[in-house]
Design goal:
Helix content is 62%, strand content 4%. The chain contains 14 helices and three strands. A three-stranded mixed beta sheet has the order 2-1-3. A hairpin with a 2-residue loop joins β1 and β2. α2 packs across α3 and α10 packs across α11.
Length: 314
Amino acid sequence: MDKVELNNDRLIDCKNKIMKGQSISSLARKLGVDRKTLKKKILEILPDEQIEEFEKILHTNFRKNRKSIKNFKKENKEGNYKKAVQTLVSLGITNEDIETIFQSINKNPHTTMAKDTFAIKLVEIFQFIQKRNEGIEPEDKGYITKENVIHMILRDPRFMTNDVERKLEPMCDIFDNWSTNITKNQVNVYIKRYPEVFKNSIKKLKMHLIIGDNFLVKSGNQYISLSEHILTENPFLISENSQIFLESVCKLRDSHSSGVIDAEELKKRMEPIKLLEEKYPLPEYEDDESFKRAVKEAIKGTEKEERKTKGEEI
C-alpha cells in the first residue's frame, strides 16, 4: 500500500479513533506506515497535557488487542480440536482411546504435542490407514484395525510424528511396489508388526533395498532376494549403518561357496562397532538408477580384483 500524507487533519482523526479504542497498528496499516511512525507523528501534534492520557489509552488498547488475539487463537485451537475429535468419533475412535494415546505420546519429550495438533495428526493417521485398508477384507491378516493402530502408536509413539504425505505414504508406496512377490496385504502385516520401520529415512530405505537386490537369502526352504527378506521378515536391517550393512552381507555371502546368505546367520550376526577396512566401499547416493549401477560395480570390482590375485580368468 502507498503511503498516505500524514497531515494534521488525518493525524487528529487517527488520534480520536485511538481514544475510542481502535488499534494503532490497524490504522498504520491502512495509511501504509509502521506503528512507530504513526505514534511519533501523533505525539508531535498533541499538547503536553494530552500526551499522558493518549499514551495511557494506547497502552490499554494494545493490551486489549493482544488479549483479543490470544483469545482468538485459543478459540481457534479449541475449535480445531473439537472438529478433529468429532471426525475421530465418526471413525469409531472413542474419547477414551484418544486420551490413552495422548497421555502415551506426551510421556516422551520427543513426541509431545499440543492437544489440537495431536488430534489433527491422529485424524490424518486414521485416514491414511483407511486408504491402506481399501480392497482388503476385515477378516484378512492385512486389514489394519483401530486396535492395531492404537497398538502401533503405543509401541512406538514416534510413529505419530511422521508426516503422512511426505513420509508414511511415500514409504508405503516403496513397500508396495518394490517387488511383485510382495502384496499390499503383506505390507500391511509388516507395518502393523514393525511401526519402527518409519523411523528410517526414505533415502536410507531405498539404499538398503537396492543393496539387497544384489543378494540371495535362504529362509527355510525358500530362496528370496535380501530386499524381499527385509520387507517381509527383518526390517531392523534398515536401521543399520549403510556401509556396515553392505560389508557384513558381502562377508556372509563370501563365507558360502554357494554365495547364498542364510537367514538365521543374518539374524544372529553381531554388527561390528568399527570397520577396520572398507573392502566394499559404499558409493554416494544421488538417485536410484546411478546408485544401482554403483553398488553393482562396487561388489563386482572387488570380486574381479580377488580373481586376478588368484590368477583366475575374468
